[in-house]
Design a protein that fits this description.
Chain B: The chain crosses the membrane at residues 6-25, 37-59, 94-115, 121-140, 145-167, 187-208, 254-272, 284-304, 324-346, 398-416, 436-457, 494-514, 548-566, 652-671. Chain B: InterPro entries: NADHpl_OxRdtase_5_subgr, ND/Mrp_TM, NU5C-like, Proton_antipo_N. Chain B: Residues 141-429 form the NADH:quinone oxidoreductase/Mrp antiporter transmembrane domain. The structure holds 2 protein chains of 2 kinds. By secondary structure, chain A is an all-alpha fold. Chain A has 21 helices and 4 strands. Chain A has a domain at 281-478. Chain A is 74% helix and 2% strand. Residues 532-536 of chain A have low confidence and may be disordered. Chain B is mostly helical. Chain B has a domain at 600-671. The radius of gyration of chain B is 29 Å and the shape is globular. The chains are: A mainly alpha, B mainly alpha. Chains A and B meet through helix 5, helix 6, helix 11, helix 13 and helix 15 of A and strand 1, helix 6, helix 7, helix 26 and helix 27 of B.
């Protein structure tokens, strides 16, 4: 199984070699489709063989030997409850993304599909890596093809979009790199054997704790890097640009998979490694999340370009995920984990749908449409389902995530304030407002634009690539347990570990050794008294 | 009784199956769409068989039976939270299921005729089946979250069906409006769900209602209030009722089924289900009662001024729902459910009757077009009608029966249920609750009852009595009365069935005091017996004499009102009489006619400012300030190294350059 995991990760990359043989455009497309489909099939046993009861423990682990002497940096991949579903989502989206580009990409196909395949390997690598340096390498690797996809196959304003995307990711990456190196040295010191360690299993374990000062700085650095990726308000402005200019496939991968790297990182790294800072900064993060939810929704409401509207809706939806993560109880974090998948499915579907209409009408301006439902009933149906999933209609996937997140945030001890959940719930009203308004203007009413009378309904390929997404929207909507079970044990275990680490750090902290601000933020003496009395 | 799982699965599953079959086949095959008979039969069976299943359950149940549960599977489960797809069969859910599937069956039958010529026939029935599925989830759920699934599900179907003829932008506006106003209510409902879960760790009705002592008084108040706000959305009460009149844009069977008989009574069902919690907070009870009475009279005054046949019925529905809320707030939960049932019969009958009228008026328009006459008129405007009783006897008779029922004339259905509500409101005036306030509410309810009889007979007389006005009003329609005709049998069958139920429906809740006066045991109110384990009714403490007096008074009020309406509208005097009322009530009449300007208020105070703020402030802020910050950084880079030029020309090499620069920077930091 270890071999299978590695094969799944690298199969898309290996697949590129086939382009040496199959060079013409049709062959390139079919090869890519076959390669990503095989990747998906390869990944299935990983899901079926997964030991759900022990999802906190990485499975199918491949562990290399340290690359540099004295430094615990090594090839280390495996899947655990947190990464499994995101990994599966990535393999599922593979063939869908390839199919979505089938007729819409006309120039340098080989380069384009190579980029998609590299992106696939990089994304799978990020989710599977358990060594933080390996994680970082895949993380960076995933940016390069996206950079090309937007820059070469993008829309009219692609240069500006690319620069913005680039600057943002660069800033985020650098900050993370600095923090990562510091963290590695601290962890290395704690092992007593190595100078440097990037093994996540050790770093996240109860054996390794960081002092309050270090936690604060490292948390802020990692959180900033991840929040740019999410993107959390106010670091979100690269997203609408990148989405509007990216080709459909780029938008789908960006929305469905790459945005998850941010929220995934918050859970993977910030939650278990910096428990005290995580807890102290939770209300601040919740405030940003709630602003993002409402702000994203309001700005989405007034967009004139459908794709930009969907992009801003992502800002709002991912605000929910961040809110759930920092609520720090099983219900909310589980909600956040499943909501990452949900957002991938429904926003992925929405971008595919926008792409389908763009391919036909060559415009995304809402005002150019109207009355499309009559012309394209099948398209209208899929669009409606994706819209409903996105606005959190019970019975579809979005509701499950939003409900668990809001419910968990409502009674979150870290937040200790109902106002976050209540304000965030307003986002549910706003989501219905901007999505249904957009849907109405695009689909309903009389056909006002003569050009639109020529539109043809979806073809078999397009229906085929939407159906799997719809199946999962419904499945997660009515039987979410089939999915949440994978991360249940992981989330529960790491919340406990994080709590224990946090208590331990506070108990050993000596307030006289700490700078004033640290004492102020963490209330060191008072917390000690509290934990003392609660232990009794 | 034995486990109801099999029957409940059929009840829930068949409408879903009907939706899937007609929906998927209809969408994918044009040949299937033309098989209207098959589509109609399938859709009808998908509701009628569940009705028979519900009847079977009902016959195996008595008023003392314990609730039976059908547990299908776990829905969500994580951490401390768990909720199941599970259904609860008890006296209350059975009554609701019978109404939903029973009235639902009749309306499905009616729709075969009504929608016969619509190209979206398949879609209509698919949506209608989906609605029944969602509604059954709502009334049969054994927990709040599954109820919420049904709650939003019926809202979705309502949205889809109001906007059924979506090429008309005003219809899709109405649909969106309905969904959004409901979402506002649902937001409050969700918060109530969070509060309940936080306190007792369960959303199961049985658990909630047996652990009420775990809630503080403050919790009870807020939960009650939030649930009430949720209910004001779905059940069209002040302040959220404005969507319902617009919802009449949907096909008429939809108005009858969703926006009169079933969905809009969800709020009443929910509060009755939670009644043991509501009675713990006199303040909330009071607010419920005030909202109900106020909505009742506000909507009734608007109804007087309407010319649209469905418009009158829509405001009438809002008003009648107000009566039901008054009942809830007066601790008369059984009476509220009683009125839900009788109202379902007579209001469905009225709506279907109006549909029959509209159907024939549209037919007239089509016929005139066929004759090459380019005339346009509003087929729903009662001023174009009159004298229809000659041409549509069944429609007329059934409409009249339902009108008598809603007007509160004994012994038809509406009389008993409305009288029980009004009496309970009066009774509460003596109670330990808010006292005198309830006397005022009783007064409001009595005036509203008067208005109800008045506007309903105004409507009936103007539509069916006198002479056919259209030829006098619009050039080119002379002799058009020959095109007026009675509707097909599928439609009149449904009308007569509902009219019959409007006559006898009241006998399930005969007033007990009548029996006592005649030496009986005082237990002739079947519904009271049936619901006594569920509805936490506050008992009547009035003396027999007082009850007789109130009832007599109510009959007199209704009778006087009918008489006045007859004098004013009985014989072609609609125009003069409306003008007379307008002059008599001056400014009030204008307020009624403007529907209290609530739409304008919400649009002006909430919707437009939000959109404008987002458009003019936030979107600009996002582009100029938030994004400007990043652009500033980009600008700095440009100045310092002209890097931008590189980025714009080469691609990969620059990236690598940046990475290297980054690494150098990091190393520098690490070294020093």
């Amino acid at each position: 199984m270890e071999f299978l995991l590695n094969l799944t990760i690298y199969f898309p990359l290996i697949g590129i070699l086939a382009f040496l043989v199959f060079r013409n455009d049709e062959a390139v497309k079919w090869t890519s489709l076959v390669v990503t489909s095989i990747t998906f099939l390869l990944s299935l046993p990983l899901l079926f063989q997964f030991d759900v009861a022990n999802s906190a423990i990485p499975q199918y682990v491949t562990e290399g030997s340290p690359v540099f002497s004295g430094m615990d940096v090594k090839y280390l991949v495996g899947l655990d409850g947190l990464s499994l579903l995101l990994f599966m989502l990535t393999t599922l989206m593979g063939p869908i993304v390839i199919l979505s580009s089938w007729n819409s990409i006309k120039k340098s196909l080989m380069g384009y599909y190579s980029m998609l395949l590299i992106l696939q390997t990089a994304s799978l690598g990020v989710f599977a890596s358990l060594d933080l340096v390996v994680f970082y390498v895949f993380f960076e690797l995933s940016l390069i093809p996206m950079y090309f996809l937007i820059g070469i196959w993008g829309g009219s304003d692609k240069v500006r979009a690319t620069i913005k995307f680039f600057i943002y990711t660069l800033v985020g990456s650098l900050i993370m790199l600095v923090a990562l190196i510091y963290l590695g040295y601290s962890a290395g010191a704690a092992t007593g054997v190595f100078e440097f360690s990037a093994d996540w299993r050790f770093i996240s374990s109860p054996e390794f704790t960081l002092g309050l000062v270090e936690q604060t700085w490292l948390f802020l650095a990692f959180a900033l890097a991840f929040c740019i990726k999410v993107p959390l308000f106010p670091f979100h402005t690269w997203l609408p640009y990148a989405h509007t200019e990216a080709p459909t496939a780029g938008s789908v991968v960006l929305a469905a998979i790459m945005l998850k790297l941010g929220t995934y990182g918050l859970v993977r790294v910030c939650l278990p490694v910096f428990p005290n800072a995580f807890a102290e900064f939770a209300p601040m993060m919740a405030i940003l999340a709630v602003i993002g939810i409402i702000y994203g929704a309001l700005v989405a409401m007034v967009q004139k370009d459908v794709k930009k509207l969907v992009a801003y809706s992502s800002v709002s939806h991912l605000g929910f995920v961040v809110l759930g993560i920092f609520a720090f109880n099983t219900v909310a974090v589980q909600g956040a984990v499943i909501q990452m998948i949900n957002h991938g499915l429904s926003t992925g579907a929405l971008f595919l749908i926008v792409g389908m209409i763009y391919d036909r009408a060559h415009t995304r301006q809402i005002s150019d449409f109207g009355g499309i439902a009559k012309q394209m009933p099948v398209f209208a149906t899929f669009f409606m389902i994706a819209t409903l999933a996105s606005i959190g209609l019970p019975g579809l996937n979005g509701f499950v995530g939003e409900f668990l997140i809001l419910n968990g945030s409502f009674f979150s001890e870290l937040y200790a304030n109902k106002v976050y959940a209540v304000l965030a719930a307003i986002g549910v009203i706003l989501a219905a407002a901007y999505m249904l308004w957009m849907y109405q203007r695009v689909m309903f009413g009389p056909i006002t634009n003569e050009e639109n009378k020529k539109l043809l309904d979806l073809n078999g390929r397009e229906i085929g690539l939407l159906i799997p997404l719809v199946i999962f929207m419904v499945w997660i909507g009515i039987r979410p347990v089939d999915f949440t079970k994978y991360s249940e044990n992981w989330v529960e275990s790491y919340i406990t570990i994080s709590q224990e680490k946090s208590t331990a750090v506070l108990e050993t902290a000596d307030s006289s050794d700490l700078p004033n601000w640290t004492n102020r933020i963490y209330d060191v003496e008072e917390s000690k008294v509290e934990s003392f009395t609660s232990n009794k | 009784m034995e486990s109801p799982t099999a029957l409940v699965s059929l009840i829930i599953g068949l409408p879903l199956l009907g939706f899937l079959i007609n929906g998927i086949l209809g969408l994918s095959s044009t040949a299937y769409r033309s098989k209207k008979t098959l589509i109609g039969i399938l859709a009808n069976l998908a509701v009628f068989i569940p009705f028979l299943c519900a009847l079977t359950l009902f016959l195996n149940f008595d008023s003392e039976s314990a609730a039976a549960f059908a547990h299908l599977f776990t829905w969500m489960e994580t951490g401390s939270f768990s909720v199941d797809i599970a259904y609860q069969v008890d006296q209350l859910s059975l009554i609701m299921t019978l109404v939903v599937t029973g009235v639902g069956s009749l309306i499905h039958l009616y729709s075969i005729g009504y929608m016969a010529h619509d190209e979206g026939f398949w879609k209509f029935f698919a949506y209608l089946n989906l609605f029944i599925f969602a509604m059954l989830n709502l009334v049969l759920a054994d927990n709040l979250l599954l109820l919420f699934l049904g709650w939003e599900g019926v809202g979705l179907c309502s949205y889809l069906l109001i906007g059924f003829w979506y090429t008309d932008m005003s219809k899709s506006d109405a649909a969106k409006k309905a969904f959004l106003y409901n979402r506002v209510g649902d937001f409050a409902f969700l918060i109530a769900i969070f509060m309940i879960f936080e306190t007792i760790g369960s959303l199961n009705f049985e658990v909630i209602l047996t652990s009420l002592e775990a809630f503080s008084g403050n919790d009870i108040f807020w939960i009650g209030l939030l649930i009430l706000i949720g209910a004001t959305g779905k059940s069209a009460q002040i302040p959220l009722f404005v969507w319902l009149p617009d919802a009449m844009a949907g096909p008429t069977p939809v108005s009858a089924l969703i926006h009169a008989a079933t969905m809009v009574t969800s709020g009443i069902y929910l509060i009755t289900r939670m009644s043991p919690m509501f009675v713990m907070s006199p303040e909330v009870m009071m607010i419920v009662a005030v909202i109900g009475a106020l909505t009742a009279i506000v909507a009734a005054t608007i109804a007087i001024t309407q010319y649209d046949i469905k418009g009158v019925l829509a405001y009438s529905t809002v008003s009648q729902l107000g009566f039901m809320f008054l009942a809830l707030g007066s601790g008369a939960f059984t009476a509220a459910i009683f009125h839900v049932v009788t109202h379902a019969f007579f209001k469905a009958c009225l709506f279907l009757g109006s549909g029959s009228v509209i159907h024939t008026m549209e037919h007239v328009e089509h016929k005139l077009h066929d004759k090459g006459k380019d005339v346009h008129f509003d087929p729903q405007d009662i001023r174009n009608m009159g004298g229809l009783r000659k041409y549509m006897p069944s429609t007329y008779k059934t409409f009249l029966i339902a009108t008598i029922a809603i007007a509160g004339i004994p012994p038809l259905a509406g009389f008993f249920s409305k009288d029980e509500i009004v009496m309970h409101a009066f009774n509460m005036g003596f109670g330990e609750y808010a006292g005198a306030m309830y006397f005022i509410l009783w007064g409001v309810a009595t005036i509203t009852a008067f208005l109800t009889a008045f506007y309903m007979f105004r409507l009936t007389f103007t539509t069916f009595h006198g002479s056919f006005k259209l030829p006098k009003l619009i050039n080119g329609t002379e002799g058009s009365e020959e095109y007026l005709h009675e509707s097909p049998a599928t439609m009149t069958t449904a009308l007569w069935s509902l009219a019959g139920l409007s006559i006898v429906g009241g006998f399930i809740g005969l007033p007990n005091f009548v029996s006592k006066t005649f030496g009986g045991d005082g237990h002739i109110n079947w519904l009271h017996e049936w619901l006594h384990t569920i509805a936490a009714d506050i008992p009547l403490t009035l003396s027999g004499t007082a009850e007789w007096a109130l009832m007599t008074f109510a009959i007199i009020v209704a009778a006087v009102s009918v008489y006045i309406a007859y004098k004013m509208y009985g014989n072609d005097q609609q125009e003069e009489s409306d003008a007379w009322i307008a002059s008599k009530f001056g400014p009030f009449y204008r307020v009624w006619k403007d529907k209290y300007s609530l739409d304008e208020l919400y649009e002006g105070a909430i919707v437009h400012p939000t959109v404008n703020f987002s458009d003019k402030v936030l979107a600009v802020f996002d582009m100029k300030i938030v994004d400007g910050f990043v652009n500033a950084i980009a600008g700095t880079v440009r100045i310092s190294g002209s890097l931008l030029r590189y980025i714009q020309t080469g691609v990969a090499s620059n990236y690598a350059l940046f990475l290297i620069l980054g690494v150098i920077l990091v190393l520098t930091i690490l070294l020093f």
